[in-house]
Structure formats: structure tokens, C-alpha cells
Backbone:
């Protein structure tokens, strides 16, 4: 049973100030967002006949994706609408430059700081319900065996008819009352998940550690993923893989990459499984092994955490203009692939929240229509990997600092108390052991050298809000 930690107030402003994150976009960028105009209004296909729906957290207003999914005897037809941010931002203008400086939406427990001003990210660009909106529409035919048969990409106008959330979709699926526009989503999601595992993909199903406001105070909790999270993620993964293939074949674009896990990482995971007494089925890939672990077991949490070692080295790769292809270095196929997805992949489904998606989408539109890639995109592509790496680091720092602060505040009056814990990582030369305190939803360092996957009682020894530090020690 999880004990509810609560605190009347936690001030996250200091974290934002420390990281230099604010909603001051500058007058030029703000003005462009406030007066956004669709530059491609005359070139759009009208698909307002399709009843699209969105699936997002309940409080979200920056809605990047809307879906309409049907099933027939041949498989599935996925219509996936993505907010057309590029059409609303003047190329290389003030807002474009400001978004490049930021790189991503940064999330804090009390608010988000959007990549673009809210008048665009939560207004003109967002696929809000009952609003006709410009989009980039992907239509993907998926066969009954899960293979992609046809892909088309074009600009369109669509109208979302409902804003759904993950928990609601999962509950509706169990009750047999899914919205007609996504009635086929569970079958589609499960099929694509099976295909991914057979392909060698690795998915870490770890619950999210969240700091949330409840009533007049703050609490810390774990938010396990619902089945709807997985089904919906398969839509984005499918689209990103199609985009990655389009750009790799053309030799121009922006890929999300991950090198193959080295043998040492796989052997370390196998050794952890053996030490914890967890059987690794003969012939199972790391992804199949992890996917087959029982939920809610402490050994599963430890092995999933250890599985992160398979995913080191994620990066971005800009591909050159095909006009100069003869002058481009020849890249090994494994350098272009994303090992955890076991294929080519690109970010294209969240342009309101991620910088690179806007540029990658423009490449896909150009390549599939036989048009040259816009010069403003070609000029930007070589600069994007560095910008995106910096943005990812900022987002991770904001998340970790916010949780560290919340844990320290929530536990500051409980130093000396005893709790039950599971060891996620044993101590190494570079870092102390790490434990998950099961009844507090807290992850923190622990003294000594306890064994990975072991259950043990621990005592809270440090909870310092100023230093944002929490630490435990085994009960002797």
C-alpha cells in the first residue's frame, strides 16, 4: 500500500530560474504567434468529413495528433493528422529563431513552458475539438500481418470531434464502448506491438514518477502506463518509421538514431536475470524477454531499470540534400537506425512540442510530392542535431530537478523513519546503489552495496530541500 506524501506548497520557480526557462518569447516571436496565418491554405485537401479524435492527458491543450482508424478485410487504414506548425511560422523569422533557441516544451509539475507561445501551441496550431484546423495528414495502409502497404502524406484540413484521454480510452475498451473512430485501436495496437517484438524492438514499460497537485497540496505517485498508452504509441511509432524510411531513401532529412546495444549490456541484463532467478526463454530477444516479465514484481522493476543499459547513445542524424548525394559520406545502415525500434525512425508527430518534427515533416512532404526540399529546411538540417541534443538535456534536467525537489520537500519531516524498498541498481565505482521505496513512489540513492532486485528495509537518512537530495541506508 502506497503511503500518500503531501505538502501544502512546493515552489518550482527556482528550478525554472536556474535552468533559464521562461515564457518570454520576445515581442517579434510573440506577435508572429498571435497573428499566425496558414501559408498553405489554398493547397489543402478537405478531410473534415472524417471524424478525428485526439488522445492526450486530460489537462493538455497543445494537441499535436488526431486519429481516425478503420479496419477491413485487408487490415487497417490509419489516418493520422499532425498539427501543421510549419504552415503557421514564417520561415527563418523571429518565431522560427526563438523556437530553435528553445528546442522543446519543458515540463514542470505546476506548469509547462511551451516551445511556442500559447496563442499558437494551445490555439491556432492545436487540433482542439470542434475546430477546423490545418494539418499534415498521413494515411497509412497496414496489412493484416502488420506490414505497411501504402503511405501518403499531404496537407489537409480536419476537424476533431472529441478530446479523449488515456485512462478513459482504456476504460472504454474494457467496457466495449470505444469511440467509433478508434474502435479498431486495440487490435491495431496489439498487432503492431507483436510485430515490433518480432522485429527485435525493446520497450521499457516503467511507470512514470509524477508530482501532482491534489486539492490544496502536492503529492508524489507512480503512474503506470495503460493499455491505451501502448496502443496510441504504436500510431506515432508507425508514422515515425514511415517518415524515417522516406527520408533515408531520399538521402535527406533528420533521423532519430540509437546504436545497437553492445554485447556487454545484453550480458549484464542476462546476468541480472540469472541472479534474480528470472528465466530467460531460449531464443527470446531482449525485447521479448522484457515484454514477458510479470507486472508488479520487484524483479520486473529492477530488470526494466537495468534494461535502460540497452539504450545508450540516442542521437539525431541530419542527412544531406540529395542534389549533393555524390559528395555525402556513405553511412553504415546501423548508424541510421534506431536499435530500440529496430528500424529507421524520425520524430514527426509532435511539432507543437519538439523542434525537429517541423523540419522532418517538411522533408517528407517534399519528397513524397516530388518537390525540392525548401531552402529554409535544407539550411536548418545540419544545425538541428546539436540544438535537439541540448533541448533534450534541458528537459531531462527540469524533470529530474523537479522530482528531486518534490521528494526532498515531501520527506523533509520524516528523516529517521523506516520504509520498504527494492534495489534497482547495485552500487558501482561511479555511483551509489539506487532503491525504489515502494510505499512512497520515491527513487533515491542508498548507502552500502545491496544486491540488485533485493527487497530490504531502509531508513531515510537525508531529505534536504535546499540541496534537493534524498538518501537512504539499509536497516542493519
Residues:
Amino acid at each position: 500500500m502506497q503511503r500518500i506524501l503531501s505538502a501544502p506548497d512546493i515552489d518550482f520557480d527556482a528550478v525554472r530560474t536556474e535552468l533559464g526557462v521562461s515564457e518570454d518569447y520576445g515581442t517579434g516571436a510573440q506577435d508572429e504567434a498571435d497573428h499566425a496565418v496558414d501559408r498553405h491554405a489554398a493547397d489543402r485537401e478537405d478531410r473534415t468529413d472524417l471524424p478525428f479524435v485526439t488522445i492526450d492527458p486530460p489537462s493538455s491543450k497543445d494537441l499535436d495528433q488526431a486519429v481516425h482508424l478503420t479496419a477491413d478485410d485487408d487490415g487497417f487504414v490509419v489516418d493520422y493528422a499532425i498539427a501543421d506548425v510549419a504552415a503557421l511560422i514564417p520561415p527563418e523569422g523571429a518565431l522560427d529563431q526563438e523556437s530553435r533557441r528553445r528546442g522543446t516544451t519543458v515540463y514542470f509539475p505546476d506548469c509547462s513552458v511551451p516551445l511556442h507561445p500559447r496563442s499558437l501551441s494551445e490555439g491556432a496550431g492545436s487540433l482542439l475539438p470542434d475546430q477546423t484546423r490545418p494539418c499534415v495528414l498521413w494515411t497509412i495502409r497496414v496489412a493484416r500481418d502488420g506490414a505497411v502497404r501504402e503511405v501518403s502524406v499531404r496537407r489537409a484540413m480536419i476537424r476533431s470531434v472529441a478530446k479523449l484521454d488515456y485512462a478513459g480510452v482504456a476504460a472504454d475498451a474494457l467496457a466495449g464502448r470505444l469511440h467509433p473512430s478508434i474502435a479498431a485501436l486495440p487490435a491495431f495496437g496489439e498487432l503492431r506491438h507483436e510485430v515490433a517484438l518480432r522485429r527485435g524492438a525493446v520497450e521499457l514499460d516503467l511507470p512514470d514518477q509524477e508530482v501532482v497537485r491534489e486539492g490544496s497540496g502536492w503529492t508524489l505517485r507512480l503512474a503506470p502506463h495503460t493499455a491505451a498508452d501502448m496502443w496510441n504509441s504504436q500510431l506515432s511509432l508507425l508514422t515515425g518509421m514511415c517518415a524515417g524510411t522516406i527520408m533515408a531513401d531520399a538521402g535527406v532529412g533528420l533521423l532519430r538514431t540509437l546504436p545497437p546495444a553492445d554485447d556487454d549490456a545484453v550480458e549484464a541484463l542476462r546476468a541480472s536475470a540469472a541472479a534474480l532467478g528470472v528465466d530467460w526463454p531460449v531464443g527470446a530477444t531482449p525485447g521479448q524477454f522484457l515484454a514477458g516479465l510479470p507486472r508488479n514484481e520487484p524483479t520486473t522493476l529492477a530488470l526494466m531499470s537495468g534494461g535502460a543499459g540497452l539504450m545508450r547513445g540516442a542521437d539525431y542524424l541530419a542527412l544531406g540534400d540529395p542534389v549533393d548525394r555524390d559528395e555525402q559520406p556513405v553511412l553504415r545502415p546501423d548508424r541510421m537506425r534506431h536499435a530500440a525500434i529496430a528500424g529507421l525512425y524520425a520524430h514527426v508527430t509532435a511539432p507543437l512540442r519538439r523542434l525537429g518534427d517541423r523540419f522532418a515533416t517538411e522533408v517528407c512532404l517534399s519528397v513524397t510530392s516530388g518537390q525540392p526540399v525548401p531552402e529554409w529546411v535544407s539550411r536548418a538540417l545540419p544545425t538541428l542535431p546539436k540544438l535537439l541534443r541540448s533541448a533534450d538535456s534541458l528537459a531531462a534536467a527540469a524533470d529530474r530537478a523537479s522530482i528531486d525537489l518534490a521528494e526532498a520537500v515531501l520527506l523533509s519531516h520524516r528523516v529517521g523513519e523506516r520504509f520498504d524498498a527494492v534495489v534497482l541498481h547495485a552500487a558501482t565505482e561511479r555511483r551509489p546503489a539506487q532503491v525504489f521505496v515502494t510505499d512512497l513512489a520515491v527513487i533515491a540513492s542508498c548507502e552500502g552495496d545491496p544486491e540488485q532486485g533485493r527487497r530490504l528495509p531502509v531508513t531515510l537518512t537525508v531529505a534536504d530541500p535546499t540541496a534537493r537530495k534524498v538518501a537512504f541506508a539499509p536497516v542493519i
